[in-house]
Design a protein that fits this description.
The protein is mainly alpha-helical and 294 residues long. It has 11 helices and 4 strands; from the N terminus they run βαβααααααββαααα. The strands form 2 sheets. A two-stranded parallel ribbon has the order 1-2. It has a two-stranded antiparallel ribbon with strand order 3-4. Strand 1, helix 1 and strand 2 (33-38) form a beta-alpha-beta unit.
Length: 294
C-alpha cells in the first residue's frame, strides 16, 4: 500500500460501514489519507452528492475505480426479478452513474482527465462483456436444465420465445399437468378481465392483476418480442388494434397477445407437439385478418 501515501482516497460503501472503517484505519496506519462515504451507486442522486462532496474536500478527482458489485448465491431459477434487477443496477447502472458524474470533473480539471475517462470507459466495456459472458453461461445452464423437462422443446418451438421465457413460465406456472384449462394459468397470471370500480372508469373492463406479477410481467415482455418477430402474433396484434368492432389500445392488445401466448403454450404442452404457424390463428381468425387487410 506504499502508493496510498501519495494519494487522498474516498472510500464508498453502501451498507458495510464497519468494514469500510477497517479499510480506512489500514490506510491511515500506512500513512495514507482517506475518508469514507455512504452512498448507493445505483441511485444517481446519491452518487451526485458524493462526487460533489468529494470535490469539495479534495478539489479534484484523478482516478475512479468502479468495483461495487453484488451477487445472489441462490440457484438461478430461485432468483426473483427484483434481485436480478438489483444486481444489474449495481454492476451496470452503478458504473454508469459514477462515470457520468466523475468524468466531467476529470475533463474540466485537466487534459490528463481524458486518459482517466478512457480507462474507465474501457473498463465499463470490459465489465459489460464480462456480464454478457455470465448471461451466456446462465443461458447454457438453463438450456441443459430445460432438456430434462420433456415439454420444454415444444414451448421453445414458438418463434420469438427463448430459454428465459420458457424457464420463467415453467417456474412460475409449475407443472402444467396440474391444469385442465389454459384459463387457469391466465387467472394465475392475473390476466383475467374485471370491471373497473373507480368512479372515473366505472363499468369499463380492466385487467384484474390478481395473480403472480412476475408471471404477468414475463408474459407481457414476451408479447413485445412476439409482435416484433413472430408473423402470426404480429398479424393478430395488428388485428386487435384495427378491427372495426371494439378495437384495442396498444397495451390492451399486448395483454390480449399475452393471453393468446398462454393458450398456445398450454396447447403445445398438452398435445406434445411443435408450433405450427398454420394452426395458431385458426381459419376464422385468419378470415377476419384477411378481410381487414383487403
Amino acid at each position: 500500500m506504499e502508493h496510498l501515501r501519495r494519494a487522498y482516497l474516498n472510500l464508498n460503501y453502501s451498507k458495510s460501514e464497519d468494514k469500510a472503517k477497517e479499510v480506512l484505519k489500514e490506510i491511515q496506519d500506512k500513512g495514507g489519507e482517506a475518508v469514507i462515504y455512504k452512498a448507493d451507486v445505483s441511485v444517481s442522486k446519491e452518487v451526485n452528492n458524493m462526487v460533489e462532496d468529494v470535490m469539495g474536500i479534495f478539489g479534484k478527482i484523478d482516478i475512479l475505480v468502479n468495483n461495487a458489485g453484488i451477487t445472489d448465491p441462490r440457484f438461478f431459477l430461485d432468483i426473483k426479478e427484483e434481485g436480478w434487477n438489483r444486481m444489474i443496477n449495481i454492476h451496470l447502472k452503478g458504473t454508469f452513474n459514477c462515470c457520468g458524474f466523475v468524468v466531467p470533473h476529470m475533463i474540466k480539471m485537466r487534459k490528463e482527465g481524458l486518459k482517466g475517462a478512457y480507462i474507465r470507459l474501457h473498463s465499463y466495456h470490459d465489465e459489460i462483456e464480462f456480464l454478457k459472458g455470465q448471461l451466456e453461461t446462465i443461458d447454457k445452464n438453463m438450456e441443459e436444465l430445460l432438456k430434462k423437462i420433456d415439454i420444454a422443446e415444444y414451448l421453445l418451438s414458438i418463434l420469438g420465445i427463448g430459454i428465459i421465457t420458457v424457464a420463467g413460465f415453467l417456474t412460475e406456472g409449475g407443472d402444467l399437468a396440474n391444469y385442465s384449462h389454459f384459463k387457469q394459468i391466465q387467472k394465475l397470471a392475473g390476466l383475467n378481465i374485471a370491471e373497473n370500480q373507480s368512479r372515473k372508469h366505472k363499468g369499463k373492463a380492466k385487467n384484474s392483476k390478481r395473480g403472480r406479477p412476475e408471471l404477468r410481467n414475463l408474459l407481457y415482455k414476451s408479447s413485445l418480442t412476439l409482435v416484433a418477430k413472430n408473423k402470426e402474433f404480429k398479424a393478430l396484434y395488428n388485428y386487435f388494434l384495427k378491427r372495426p368492432k371494439n378495437p384495442l389500445k396498444a397495451k390492451q392488445a399486448l395483454i390480449a397477445i399475452s393471453v393468446k401466448l398462454v393458450r398456445v403454450m398450454f396447447a403445445l404442452a398438452k398435445k406434445r407437439e411443435n408450433y405450427d404457424p398454420q394452426k395458431v390463428l385458426g381459419e376464422y381468425r385468419m378470415m377476419q385478418i384477411n378481410q381487414l387487410a383487403a
